[in-house]
């Protein structure tokens, strides 16, 4: 089974630069822990006023927090793929003027993590602050036998901000025409987003 590094990208995207008011502390969104009880019901996010001309809406909406902000269409597909570690934190997306442009979005908060990174074969630098996390990947090597066969979209234990998807999930995203993402072959990835 092949895996891909999953990154959210979109040209002229209505860029989201903060979580809804009343959300848990930012760092908790990278931990792979349940946040549904702490997340505000009826949460709203808005396009950043720092990018007033960028208004495009994608299935995976670019955001400063580097999280997966997912359209209703993408959510239905992910649910149909039986991704079992998905927690959905619903929000409404508004444009710069406060008009609703995405009534059925949600942050996809992936639960848990897979011990997917081969720390002996990978080239990396550890994070100076979060000392148990990789700060920068220079060459990624995977430990395939440590990845659960049920893991389809997941965080990596040693770099929880790094999201990997299985090749069949990538194929389903492409076939459905989902927008707002780019993938890189995980094995040998140099950590750059070009």
TrEMBL record:
Start and end residues of each Immunity MXAN-0049 protein domain: 45-186
Entry superkingdom: Bacteria
Lineage of source species: Bacteria, Pseudomonadati, Myxococcota, Myxococcia, Myxococcales
InterPro entries: Imm11
Identification of the protein by name: Immunity MXAN-0049 protein domain-containing protein
């Amino acid at each position: 089974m092949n895996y891909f590094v999953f990154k959210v990208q979109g040209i002229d995207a209505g860029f989201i630069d903060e979580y809804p008011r009343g959300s848990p502390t930012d760092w908790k969104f990278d931990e792979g822990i349940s946040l549904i009880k702490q997340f505000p019901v009826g949460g709203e996010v808005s396009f950043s006023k720092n990018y007033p001309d960028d208004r495009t809406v994608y299935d995976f909406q670019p955001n400063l927090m580097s999280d997966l902000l997912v359209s209703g269409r993408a959510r239905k597909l992910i649910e149909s793929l039986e991704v079992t570690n998905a927690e959905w934190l619903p929000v409404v997306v508004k444009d710069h003027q406060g008009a609703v442009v995405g009534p059925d979005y949600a942050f996809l908060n992936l639960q848990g993590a897979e011990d997917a990174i081969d720390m002996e074969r990978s080239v990396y630098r550890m994070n100076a602050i979060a000392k148990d996390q990789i700060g920068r990947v220079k060459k990624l090597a995977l430990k395939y036998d440590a990845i659960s066969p049920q893991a389809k979209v997941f965080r990596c234990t040693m770099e929880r901000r790094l999201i990997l998807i299985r090749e069949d999930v990538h194929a389903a995203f492409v076939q459905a025409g989902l927008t707002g993402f780019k993938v890189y072959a995980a094995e040998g990835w140099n950590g750059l987003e070009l």
